[in-house]
C-alpha cells in the first residue's frame, strides 16, 4: 500500500538555524496524523518543507509515492497537497468568493457551492473582503480555500489557534468529517485534547527531532511521553 | 484665470499620462516586490517607436497599439530571460533593471540620435476646444479621457476576472498564492507584459506633449516612483489618485516655483513615507 505522505530523513534549515534533524514521518492513506510539540519544536517547519517553502538540505518527501521535495509550491499543489496555514493567511483584499475561486482546481467533489454548504457563514459573507472577517470565519475560509484545490493530502497548521471554544468544536467536527470521507490529514496542534480526539496516529517533535510516534491510543496511555515532551499541556 | 484653468487641465492630462506609466510599474512592484527601474526606459522606447511609425504615416492610435505591443514583448523577454533567473535575489533583480535601463537608453541614442523627435497629435484633435470662452488644448482632454478609459479597463480586468483576482492574491501574499496553486511565474509574465504595454502606449500617447528625447526615461522614472510611493505599492486606485496628485504638483510646481520643482515634487513623498509608509492606498505585503 502506498502511503499518503512520507517524510524521509529530512534536514531543513530555516534561516541560519538548523531546525529539523533527520525527521521521519508517515501519513497513512485516509488517516489523520497529529503532529505535536512545543512552540518552536519544528512542527511548522515540517509543513513548510512538505509545501515546498523550504528546500530540505537532505532527505525526501513523497506524496502517494511521488517525490515532491525540490518542487515548487505550485507543482506540489498539483500533486494533491493543500495547506491551511498558521495564521490563516486568507487573501485580505479579495472577497470571500474570490479567495475560493483562485484556489479552485481539479474536478473533485469540492467546489464553491459545497464549501458554502459546509460553511454557511461564508455564503452570507461571500462578497465581503476576507480581511474584514472574524478570526473564526477566516479560519473557515482558509479551510474552504484548501478544499477548493481538491487535495488528497491536507496539511493543517494550528487551525484552532486563537478561536473561541465553540468555534474550535465546529472546526473539530469539520476535520473529523473530512477524515471520515477518506482525506489524509496532517494536523499540527497545540490543543492536545482536540488533537487526540481527532487523530489516528500521533508524532511528537522536540527541538527538531521526532521523539515519539504511535497511535492516539498509545499516546493517551503513555503519560510520561506527554509530560516529557509537551510539558505544560 | 486662464493660467489656472490651463494649468489645471495640463495637470489632469499629465496625471493621465502618469497613470499609464505607473499603473504597470505599481503592479509589477506589488507582485515581484521590486521597482522595475527600466520602466522609464520602456516609456521612452514607446515614444521612439511611435515617432518612427508616425513618420511612416501610420494612424496615430494604431501606432500607439503597435508600439505598446512591441514594448510589451520586450518587457516579457526582460522578465523571462533576466529576472526569472534571479528569482529570490531581489537586489540583483533591481540592479539588472537599472542596467537594462541604461542599455535601452544608449541603444535609443544610437538608433534615433540626440535630437528630440516630435510626435504629432492626430490632426482632428489638434484644434483648441472652446468651453465657456476659454481655449483648451483639445489633445490634452483626449489624453485625459484615454487614460480614464484605460483605468476603467484595468479595473475591470483586476476586479472582475479570475486572472485579476489571482494577480491581487499574488500582491496580497505571494507565498500563499503559490500554495493554492496559482501559477505565479506566469502571472509575472502577464503583469510584465501589461505594465510594459501600458508604458509603451503611454510613451506614444504622451508624445505630442512630451516628444521623444534622450533623457525622457530619466525624467519619467522618478515620477512613477513618487506616484507609487504616494498611492501605495500594487494598488490600482492608489496609482490613479497618486498620478493626479503628482500631475498637479509637477505642473503647478514647475510653473510657480520653477527653481524648486523637485523639492515640491519629492517633499510630499517624504511626508507620506514618514506618516504612512505604505502609501495612501497601500498595505503591508507578505
Descriptive report:
The complex is a heterodimer of chains A (233) and B (286). Chain A has 2 domains: 1-80 and 152-233, P-loop containing nucleotide triphosphate hydrolases (Rossmann fold), CATH 3.40.50.300; 89-151, no CATH class. In chain A, helix 4 (112-118) packs antiparallel against helix 6. The longest helix of chain A is centred in the last third of the chain and has 16 residues, at 165-180. Chain A has helices spanning 43-51, 73-78, 96-101, 112-118, 120-124, 135-148, 165-180, 192-198, 216-221, 223-230, and strands spanning 5-14, 17-27, 32-36, 58-63, 66-67, 81-84, 153-157, 184-188, 201-206, 209-215. The termini of chain A are far apart. Chain A is of the alpha/beta class and 233 residues long. In chain A, the strands form 2 sheets. A 6-stranded mixed sheet of chain A has the order 6-7-8-3-9-10, with helices on both faces. With 286 residues, chain B is mainly alpha-helical. Chain B has a single domain, classed as ABC transporter involved in vitamin B12 uptake, BtuC. Helices cover 74% and strands 2% of the residues of chain B. Chain B has helices spanning 2-32, 39-55, 60-83, 90-112, 138-160, 162-172, 174-179, 184-205, 207-210, 216-231, 236-256, 261-275; strands spanning 129-131, 134-136. A two-stranded antiparallel ribbon of chain B has the order 1-2. In chain B, strand 1 (129-131) and strand 2 (134-136) form a beta hairpin. In chain B, helix 1 crosses helix 10. The longest helix of chain B is centred in the N-terminal third of the chain and has 31 residues, at 2-32. The mean pLDDT of chain B is 90. The interface between A and B is medium-sized, with 26 and 21 residues.
Amino acid at each position: 500500500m502506498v502511503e499518503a505522505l512520507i517524510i524521509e530523513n529530512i534536514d531543513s534549515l530555516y534561516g541560519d538555524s538548523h531546525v529539523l534533524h533527520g525527521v521521519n514521518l508517515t501519513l497513512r492513506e485516509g488517516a489523520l496524523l497529529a503532529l505535536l510539540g512545543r512552540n518552536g519544536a519544528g512542527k511548522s517547519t515540517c509543513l513548510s518543507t512538505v509545501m515546498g517553502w523550504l528546500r530540505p538540505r537532505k532527505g525526501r518527501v513523497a506524496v502517494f509515492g511521488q517525490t515532491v521535495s525540490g518542487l515548487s509550491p505550485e507543482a506540489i499543489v498539483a500533486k494533491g497537497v493543500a495547506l491551511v496555514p498558521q495564521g490563516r493567511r486568507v487573501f485580505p483584499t479579495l472577497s470571500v468568493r474570490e479567495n475560493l475561486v483562485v484556489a479552485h482546481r481539479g474536478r473533485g467533489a469540492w467546489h464553491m457551492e459545497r464549501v458554502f454548504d459546509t460553511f454557511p457563514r461564508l455564503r452570507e459573507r461571500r462578497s465581503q473582503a476576507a480581511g474584514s472577517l472574524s478570526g473564526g470565519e477566516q479560519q473557515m475560509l482558509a479551510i474552504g480555500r484548501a478544499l477548493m484545490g481538491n487535495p488528497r493530502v491536507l496539511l493543517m497548521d494550528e487551525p484552532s489557534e486563537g478561536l473561541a471554544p465553540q468555534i474550535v468544536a465546529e472546526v473539530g467536527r469539520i476535520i473529523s468529517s473530512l477524515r471520515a470521507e477518506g482525506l489524509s490529514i496532517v494536523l499540527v496542534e497545540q490543543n492536545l485534547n482536540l488533537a487526540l480526539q481527532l487523530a489516528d496516529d500521533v508524532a511528537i517533535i522536540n527541538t527538531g527531532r521526532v521523539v515519539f510516534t504511535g497511535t492516539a491510543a498509545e499516546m493517551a496511555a503513555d503519560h510520561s511521553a506527554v509530560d516529557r515532551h509537551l510539558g505544560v499541556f | 484665470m486662464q493660467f489656472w484653468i490651463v494649468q489645471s487641465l495640463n495637470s489632469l492630462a499629465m496625471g493621465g499620462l502618469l497613470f499609464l506609466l505607473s499603473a504597470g510599474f505599481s503592479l509589477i512592484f506589488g507582485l515581484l516586490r521590486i521597482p522595475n527601474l527600466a520602466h522609464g526606459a520602456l516609456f521612452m522606447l514607446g515614444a521612439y517607436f511611435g515617432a518612427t511609425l508616425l513618420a511612416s504615416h501610420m494612424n496615430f492610435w494604431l501606432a500607439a497599439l503597435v508600439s505598446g505591443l512591441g514594448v510589451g514583448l520586450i518587457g516579457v523577454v526582460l522578465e523571462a530571460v533576466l529576472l526569472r533567473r534571479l528569482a529570490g535575489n531581489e537586489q540583483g533583480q533591481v540592479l539588472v533593471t537599472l542596467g537594462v535601463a541604461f542599455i535601452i537608453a544608449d541603444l535609443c541614442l544610437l538608433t534615433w540620435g540626440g535630437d528630440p523627435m516630435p510626435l504629432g497629435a492626430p490632426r482632428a484633435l489638434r484644434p483648441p476646444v472652446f468651453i465657456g470662452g476659454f481655449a483648451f488644448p483639445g489633445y490634452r482632454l483626449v489624453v485625459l479621457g484615454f487614460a480614464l478609459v484605460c483605468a476603467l479597463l484595468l479595473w475591470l480586468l483586476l476586479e472582475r476576472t479570475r486572472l485579476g483576482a489571482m494577480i491581487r492574491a499574488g500582491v496580497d501574499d505571494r507565498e500563499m498564492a503559490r500554495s493554492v496553486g496559482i501559477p505565479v511565474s506566469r502571472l509575472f509574465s502577464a503583469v510584465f507584459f501589461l505594465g510594459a504595454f501600458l508604458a509603451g502606449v503611454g510613451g506614444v500617447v504622451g508624445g505630442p506633449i512630451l516628444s521623444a528625447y534622450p533623457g525622457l526615461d530619466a525624467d519619467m522614472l522618478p515620477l512613477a516612483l513618487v506616484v507609487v510611493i504616494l498611492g501605495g505599492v500594487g494598488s490600482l486606485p492608489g496609482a490613479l489618485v497618486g498620478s493626479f496628485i503628482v500631475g498637479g504638483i509637477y505642473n503647478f510646481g514647475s510653473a510657480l516655483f520653477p527653481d524648486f520643482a523637485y523639492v515640491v515634487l519629492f517633499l510630499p513623498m517624504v511626508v507620506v513615507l514618514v506618516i504612512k509608509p505604505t502609501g495612501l492606498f497601500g498595505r503591508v505585503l507578505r
